[in-house]
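Appendix B. Chain record.
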Amino acid sequence: MTPEHETLIEHLFKEYHRFLCISAYEVLQDWMLAEDAVQRTFEIACQKEEILDTLERPRLWLTQILRNVVKNMWRAQKTQNKYFEELSPEREDSLPDYRNVEDDINYLKPRHISQEDFNIFKSVVIYGFTCAQVAEYFGLSEAACYKRVQRTKKKMQKFFEREK
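Structure tokens predicted for this chain:
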């Protein structure tokens, strides 16, 4: 990396670090994970020297990188794994094993519901995120997120009523 790029990255870090941390926290609900996501965002930015030369809207560019990083973190369930690693040993023995819960939940998904709709539904109903958080994460309006959750809920109710 050239000295000019290092200076630019340092400037971008100082200017946007707080904004990016807050944005990541709104989705992840954990400051340590949010900081990890922001660090990964700047690692990726450092690898994109050709873009740094022509960068016109750095906040938008960094936000797009952060969004992808957070999605990847969420998909890989690193969030859940880190929560379980932080539990005290005495409590860990008394908790059920949640490692296969995601497989069990995905098994419940009827085939006629899209994976994205099901992920939105899981995020709100099972994981407890607000529609505003999920909407921002998936790039939707809050109203669209709410409607998709309700439609998915109705489809699942019909599906399970037929299965009885």
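Further analysis of this model is presented in Appendix C.
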